[in-house]
Fold this protein.
Amino acid sequence: MSKATSPGGRLRNLRTERNLSQRALAQLAGISTNSISLIEREEISPSVATLQSLAAALNIRMSFFFEDEDEQKVLHAKAATRPSLNSQGVYIESTGGRIPDQEMEPFLIQLAPNTSSGERQVIHTGHEIVYCLKGKFEYFIDGDSYFIEKGDFLLFEANLPHLWRNPFDAPAEFILILQTPGATLDPVKRHFVEYPSIPHIG
């Protein structure tokens, strides 16, 4: 296992993604700052209890710290218990799990005013489906601009370069479904490149 995929490396990468200091994470998890440092440097192996505390503090499944993830056959993502991530004005909810051979990955996205998916356009296999629940926002697809308002659907081939943003003064909310053949998580990882823990939240 490389350092990047070891529990310590994953913890360090995730802490950096969340813009948390070691001290801030230690306070959230109820463990010492020194323990965080030692875990990240691979000088100690964290106990299951410590990993559980870290996972709870970071709102991720404990499977984030390991190579493999358990899959379920039915996912029922209750509104009050869906895993979420809130960073840089972008709020993201996921189902918190996967089923075998899953080719669709749904997300609830909330955009604060003047926020975006990033400057870099995304390209991936499959299709992308968008449904606006509230407000309005903008999708750039292959050089064209599409303004999406409440009730609008957008469906397109995801191998076209694209990104989304909210240039308006009011928040927007939409359902994003990433569909890809072959049950790969690559589109999710490409879309949320600044949030590498997204496939694991919950």
